[in-house]
Amino acid sequence: MEYLPLFFDLRGRPILVVGGDAVAARRIDLLLRAGAAVRVVAEAVTPEIEALASAGRIQLELRSFATSDVAGCVAVFGAGAETRAAEVAAAGRAANVPVNIVDRPDLSTFIMPAIVDRDPVIVAVSSGGAAPVLARRVRARIEALLPARLGALARFARRFRAAARDVLASTAQRRRFWERVFESPVADAVLAGNEAAAQAQMVRLLNHTARPEAGVVYLVGAGPGDPDLLTVRAVQLMQQADVVLYDELIGPEILDRVRRDADRFYVGKSKGRHSLSQDELNALMLREARAGRRVLRLKGGDPFVFGRGGEEADFLRGHGIEVVAVPGITAAVGALAAAGIPLTHRDHASAVTFLTGHTRPGDLEIDWASLARGDRTLVVYMGLSNAGDIAGRLRAAGLAAHTPVAVVQNGTRPDQRVSTGTLDELGTLAAAHAGLGPALLVIGDVAAYAVPEHSENGRAVSWQK
User: Is 106 labeled as catalytic in the residue annotation?
Assistant: First the structure.
């Protein structure tokens, strides 16, 4: 983040604008709407600026800029072709006064965002000065999405904040209450301009909302790693959760989508390294849910595909806790697509089998003979360390040594890595990927469709988000 977005209260505060052309006029209009006390210094001004001065809305001084003009100001704006930009910028910096020079981020200590105004709801969009036109395009899209009366809804809610504090003791209760309000007919009525109906419904909500709410656990799949592959429902719950428990496969780009003030617990597991045992993790989810909190168990891939989601759901439901499962794009689907590998193909594979290369003592023995039939795709999770043994068992069961294989590591991520070879090379290929991130083993004819890393003859398959 190159710039920290901030919202300043400028009501009655002195602001200097140097310049008097149409660009300066737009800045002045924005500053007046924010309630600033605007002083303009320029050798010439537009009729619009002159009219503002005549009406007493701004202070106008028709002269050249002087370094002493910045004294006592809370911010300085330089606009207009005739403005001595470097001089204005230097004066502001020397006086420790924030300065903005239009279209000159190199001279500015702050920049102006593209603004969506639904007062008191304000949305600011910035490209950090790199691409102002792009920021304006983003603003236009947001403008189209936000209702015209969104500000009225915010003002309506403000009228009931004190009443909500009186009825609801905890911050968590009040947050949930307002989330319900903004998704309810109350909000619909305000946005439609019928605030009388909204007020009556709001009073009923407040009178029936004091009882404590039960907690819930959401088992949410975060996909294979690319944050753009999160489902809409996953992002919604990430913004609503009170506490988030995330595993080894959840990267910082995904965690950035989580609500800022949610409590976060790292509960990752990798071979030989567990931050919490499964029993401790279950106890943590149970404790938080019993406290009435919304618990988000965020898992890489899909929670019910080698994610222990089934075990956790059984445990929680056995203790009377509501569990909601939200599927994610499982690693096999996402990572193989990113590597250009089809899971099925009419000429090569009529079935797909997902299996784990890491089992517990006493688990059922895998039927290797059925897996070695050669008419299917095998995708092995958590199989890097056992890749040689898996290949040997498949060979012994009759699968040809020349069967294509691929290792897809960190699938869909910027550091994705793909290696290809044959079944008798699988152990060696896997060893080269050890310790570099989660990986899948792909065994079957479709593996030949992979686009290997740095391949000169790979097929022209590109990963499209």
Answer: no
